[in-house]
Amino acid sequence: MEAKIQIPPVTLYNTRTREKEEFKPLKPPYVGIYVCGPTVYSDPHLGHARAAVVFDVLRRYLTSMGYKVRFVSNITDVGHLEGDADEGEDKIQKRARLEQLEPMEIAQHYTRVYNNAMAKLNVIPPNIQPHATCHIPEQIELVQTILDKGFAYVVNGSVYFDVPKYAQKYEYGVLSGRRLEELESVTRELRGVEEKKHPADFALWKKAPPTHIMKWKSPWSVGFPGWHLECTVMNAKYLGIPFDIHGGGMDLIFPHHECEIMQAVAAWDTEPVRYWMHNNLITIDGQKMSKSLGNFITIEQVFTGEHERLSKAHHPMALRVLILQTHYRSVIDFSDSGLASAEKAYKRLVQALKKLETLEFIGGKTDSSKEDKIIKHINNFYEFMSDDLNTARAIAQLFDLTSIINQLANEGKSVQTVSPEIGEILKRQYSHTLVDILGILPEDEHLDTSRLHAVLQILINLRQEARKHKNFQLADRIRDQLREIGIILRDTPYGTEWELE
RNA sequence: GGCAGCGUGGCCGAGGGGCUAGGCGGGGGCCUGCAAAGCCCUUGACGGCGGUUCGAAUCCGCCCGCUGCCUCCA
Q: What is the pTM (predicted TM-score) of this model?
């Protein structure tokens, strides 16, 4: 890192303490991050995209600072109970019955769909992507530990966490700010006859009804693990308790993350997580997007444009930019026009990057105020990223740099107003912040375009000759026909550029 | 009902007592065979009513409107 660029210490808003805290890993330079992954029984939607992109940027940022990050994100393939207790049916099983498939076939299919979507969004795959069904023995073991410690009880082959007992020894609701008495008054009327001693108790192990397909042997019954168990088990197994950062959507704070804390504290007498981070939700027309409301847009629909609310197919990076232009703790009200505007913004950033790569900084007539601005914007970028991952402000700095790059490019290929030293910093940092840290990929990097490149160069050269001879009819025909197949030609002071639409 | 939060210019979205956010769009100009892109200039905002203050979009109070969690969910 060059001397002129300073990266301030990272502060993160910790849901647990409700304030921004300086991030200090337990065992530097190692950082453990766990993010709640998807339940794989349907297509991933915009909400999945947001959580994944937000924590991908966190991971990239910490990595760029020299931390060695282990990033764990699970696949929930057991399915959780639907509705309450005894009426419950495993989600994946339900879907399997509907489609006449093996439950594991469903899980496998949607895991693949999810991972494909993540790849398109340029989300780096987790270092470990553990599956709940691969950790049944560990989950059974944890249930036993909690039973041994006296914080759970067995009823008819099911095991429940004893929340009132826990609340006697430890504080209840540390994450969500919820109080046990209030919870009781609300939930009492909602629930019918059941095995739980207290409405706030939750299942650690459920005995499976005879029709249930996904089930495993345990000391208590043939059944399946409770909703919150897998995360605790996989935290402990792959990151150790306690570990640094646990992330997920805000809707998971209660009860999911609250239960995770109780399980870990009950089992090991230690709060499991140093920093709890929660991204806010995505709304559509001001309404929460959710599975139960059925108003969600899948990630793939954004890319194909096949949804009544979408006017066209959008570039995956447009979605990424849209997400990063909002701070992660604010709501994003999703719209087609917002996505379209993000797409234009994305193109601007990427065009500036391409342009910057062709520039040569020779100095000679250096403009120190311009150079100062460049350094200032780069430092601001890091300052805002370190301030609770404020990607909205950080990306604004990149737009300011974009503007400067465009001005420099107007000088021609050889730039005199910026010294070679500052020019190199600009080149390195602009690319590093945009591509490596924010994960905004220049277009078509995945595509092998080398031959297409060569062919277009031939056409561009022919057109150039036609223009030289003032044969504009031919020149325009070449450009128009290329446009018809989605290739746009653009004449610039330093030659003709092309771009795929 | 309990808890948490939000209301910013045409749209999206940062910020948060005096200091240009940014993106998209609109207007004017430069460049150009034309087009596109780019550049320069520009427009324009802090839900309502009170209060604190030399000064409030920013702090406090009340009111209005909206959202999330309390049921699986990112």
A: 0.90
